[in-house]
């Protein structure tokens, strides 16, 4: 079952913060985050395993709330280069297929 | 290291035809996954191959098939093309599987007329 991402789109000014959520109705083993810029292939950001750990990539960090089956991606002090579509992918068990959400389009303006 | 390469980059076919797409993973990567990307459906998982064996499969009809060779290169085949098969087909490779970081190729843009 496809995870649900919210919001579907967000517009930011440089330096502003944003949060992207990824929710599943099923228990999850891991959550993966990728960013895809227009006309390019998706690029890996990070993987979070159940256990509620938080990870970071530059000024982008994420958390995984196992009880809520929800992951949140935090864009802090956004830069123009953060523009793109962010996808979360979820695994229900180790080695299972990765199911991606519909994506969140992020536009960072000067 | 060279990245993931996919050929061809663009394809135009007509309904009912068959198509084969190719993916060469990063050297040393044994896992290759295929995804279909459309504006309406986002990224949809097709299948994953690891060491020539299909390890996972998405919810696509049997018209979609794939295989992996001993050198880890992979091909995806779609038979009896339908208009709805028009999409960007992405291939991704990783050392051990989809539970690791995946490296995506540039994709093959398939248009079915």
Description:
The complex is a heterodimer of chains A (110) and B (113). Helix content of chain A is 0%, strand content 55%. Chain A is mainly β. In chain A, strands 2, 4, 5, 9, 10 and 11 form a 6-stranded mixed sheet that branches. In chain A, strands 1-3-8-7-6 form a 5-stranded antiparallel sheet, with no helix packed on it. The radius of gyration of chain A is 13 Å and the shape is globular. The mean pLDDT of chain A is 91. In chain B, strands 2, 4, 5, 6, 9, 10 and 11 form a 7-stranded mixed sheet that branches. In chain B, strands 1-3-8-7 form a 4-stranded antiparallel sheet, with no helix packed on it. With 113 residues, chain B is mainly beta. In chain B, 40% of the residues are buried. Chain B is globular. Chain B has strands at 5-7, 10-13, 19-24, 31-38, 42-50, 53-57, 64-68, 74-78, 87-94, 103-104, 108-112. In chain B, a hairpin with an 8-residue loop joins strand 9 (87-94) and strand 10 (103-104). The N and C termini of chain B lie far apart (37 Å). Chain B has no helices and 11 strands. The chains are: A mainly beta (110), B mainly beta (113). At the A-B interface, strand 5, strand 9 and strand 10 of A face strand 5, strand 6 and strand 10 of B.
Q: How would you describe this structure in keywords?
A:
heterodimer; A: mainly beta; 5-stranded antiparallel β-sheet; globular; B: mainly beta; 4-stranded antiparallel β-sheet; 11 strands; 0% helix
> What is the count of DSSP helices of chain A, taking H or I runs of 4+ residues?
0
Kindly state the mean pLDDT of chain A as a whole number? 91
Percentage of helical residues of chain B? Answer: under 10%
Cα(first) to Cα(last) distance of chain A is: 37 Å
Strand content of chain A: over 45%
Based on Cα principal axes, name the global outline of chain B. globular
């Amino acid at each position: 079952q496809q995870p649900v991402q919210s919001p579907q789109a967000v517009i930011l000014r440089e330096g502003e913060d944003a949060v992207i959520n990824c929710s599943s109705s099923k228990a999850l083993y891991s959550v993966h985050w990728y960013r895809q810029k227009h006309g390019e292939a998706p690029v890996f950001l990070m993987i979070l395993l159940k256990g509620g750990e938080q990870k970071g990539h530059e000024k982008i960090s994420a958390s995984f709330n196992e009880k809520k089956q929800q992951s949140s991606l935090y864009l802090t002090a956004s830069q123009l280069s953060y523009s793109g579509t962010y996808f979360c992918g979820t695994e229900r068990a180790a080695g299972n297929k990765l199911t991606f959400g519909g994506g969140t389009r992020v536009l960072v303006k000067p | 290291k060279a990245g993931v390469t996919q050929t061809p980059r663009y394809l135009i076919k007509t309904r009912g035809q068959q198509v084969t797409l190719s993916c060469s993973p990063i050297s040393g990567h044994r896992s290759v996954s295929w995804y279909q990307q459309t504006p309406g459906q986002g990224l949809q998982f097709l299948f994953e191959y690891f060491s020539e064996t299909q390890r996972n499969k998405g919810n696509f009809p049997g018209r979609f098939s794939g295989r992996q060779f001993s050198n880890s290169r992979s091909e995806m085949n779609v038979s009896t093309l339908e208009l709805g098969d028009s999409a960007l087909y992405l291939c991704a490779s990783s050392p051990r599987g989809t539970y690791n970081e995946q490296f995506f190729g540039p994709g093959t843009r398939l248009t079915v007329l």
